UniProtKB/TrEMBL annotation:
Lineage: superkingdom: Bacteria
Organism: Pseudomonas gingeri
Residue ranges with Basic and acidic residues bias: 1-15
Region (Disordered) residue spans: 1-25
DNA-binding region: 48-67
Protein name (Swiss-Prot/TrEMBL): TetR family transcriptional regulator
Matches recorded under InterPro entries: Homeodomain-like_sf, HTH-type_TetR-like_transc_reg, HTH_TetR, Repressor_TetR_C, Tet_transcr_reg_TetR-rel_C_sf
Amino acid sequence: MTPPSEHRATADTARRGRPPSGSSMLSRPVIVQAAIDVIDAQGAAALSLRSVARRLGVDAKSLYNHIENKEALLDAIAQQVLSRMVVPAATGDLRTDLIAIAHAFRTAALSSHREAVTLVLSRPAELLAHLTPLEATLAALMAAGAKPDWAVHAVRATLAFISGSLLREASTGLTLGADDPAIAGPREAALADLGLAHVALVAPYLSRLDHHREFDFGIGILADAFVRELAQAAAKA
């Protein structure tokens, strides 16, 4: 008969180890998808190695065989989310190509929980998933005659717009508008009652927000400016 002390030791060891039901199925892709599921279900603030382990039904320590730490997990999530981006085929028309690339990036970034957008945009730019759309954008600009240094300035301006637009869309901060009519109506009335003449004049428009339309408007202006600048530079050459 096994002494009670040995039974307790065996049970303690089992509790500290990886649960047999989940450990054999662990892999980096499985862990990353579970992390995305945590964000989808509970928001980015709930993400931790422990919350991912709970979702998978394993001991948190078992994750370290596949993911070095939380920073590595965040990088992997960003890589996974942006890997959904399908880079549009180049048409040779700069305006068309820039707008298509920007919309493809937006679609990929918003493909998971909106709170994941902040995570994706905050990860190092050296991630391959970030560099793929960068390569496509640089190719479009330089094919249109942009010099390397000018192309980099244009890319940075584009990224600044895309990042700001997506962060606004994800957090609804500094918009004053809403895409929900139930919210937009009262907001319009509040803006009109502020005693600010020009704000009151635009209140019907300022209180309503179509994120897709706003994104299209902004990236279109940028693309038009790039096309115009390159045409003027070519005319002077």
